[in-house]
Amino acid sequence: MTTSVRPPQKYAVSTLHGKDGERPKVMIIYTGGTIGMMENPESKTLEPFNFDHLLENVPKLRLCMLPRAKAKTNVNNLINLHCNMTTSVRPPQKYAVSTLHGKDGERPKVMIIYTGGTIGMMENPESKTLEPFNFDHLLENVPKLRLLDIDIESVEFVNPIDSSSMNPGHWQQIAKVIEDNYDNCDGFVVLHGTDTMAYTASALSYMLQGLNKPVIITGSQLPIGDVRTDGEENLITALQIASARNCDGNMMVREVAILFEDFLWRGNRSTKHSSDNFCAFSSNNYPALASIGLGIHFNKDVLLKPDMNGPLKVHYGIDTNVMVIDLFPGIQENVVRHMFHTPGVKGIIIKTFGAGNGPNDPWFIREIQEAVERGIVVVNISQCQNGHVNPGLYAAGLEISKTGVISGKDLTSEAAITKLMHLFGQTDDIEAVKEQMVLPICGEMASEDAD
Q1: Which end of the chain has less neighbouring CB within 10 Å, N or C?
Q2: Is 217 helix (H, G, I), strand (E, B) or coil?
Q3: 45: annotated active-site residue
Q4: Could you tell me the fold of the domain covering 93-314?
């Protein structure tokens, strides 16, 4: 036994103290295996790393016992709906992160657009609060990017925001950055807070018509500077997906998608379902575009296949005179009437029970009928995460459909409300909005053939 293991190596990995004035002591017993390997820069083979340099190879061990404080971000100076695109982002930061080459002797180029959110935060060593880190030092914060076969540029909001403060002006800003750099980049990765990520993904999918390159939105549940962060893996995987090509040399993904933990989801089919799980997003009515394990496995049959020859056309128009009404047992007539008579409202999403059902009270049907007659576009979507509206299945749903309410089929709430914003941003023609609302624009809903 005395010759089969090396003498223990000791490391002081924090400045905090445990019980009785001493820090907790944990021993690592390394037997071998993939976990303890690093790539040899010369041979490109995996070799066991030297545990004498454990802190050098795993620098986040220094953070193991540091306290986490509540996130604090600057949400001042938010961009308005008609934002000044030239002053709202910092100039791109360029990083050549490897010496490998891609197609035609060039590495793929991916642009990171940092809007804010948990993923881009680091702990301030003095205040112990979480703050957005400086993307000028991206490689320092995520050194594994040096191992990727990608050239990276980054653009960041001058005032990174919490995603709960996201608004259509920010969507316009992101779209403008993509448009301005579209011809010079192979793909885009948008770093975003998780709370409104599905709204942004849905909105961008409608705005970026003719998109023929990947726009991968990702974030994290823990800051990228946290010792157990999911952000580092999400960022690296998002970059790999945004640079991936198929056997024909074309970009593998040519749509707006959300990458989170183990799956790549269509952006306008996704919703956040957990606030404390690393697998925070799901798409209950559409399969994953890719699954992530030891490798990235694309589900090629469900990837969007846009016209390869069409140009990118960005639709910046967004009209926010829309709202969502979420039904519940006991909802009162005066409340519903007040919402249906909201000044200036053009479109309303009603989230109904089950397959599209609602109260059969005469006053409820009457309020919907009168709203439709006043020219308000009313769309029926289900509160259920799985399934779709089938208004003819029950009498309660049939009565609603007879008022002229549009079936939202299997739209998510995020995709439905942003689609109304988008359509009213293009036209005030009520009939045109109704016609387009029931047709898929970019894979956000089932087609007529699927019904």
Answers
A1: N
A2: strand
A3: no
A4: Rossmann fold (3.40.50)
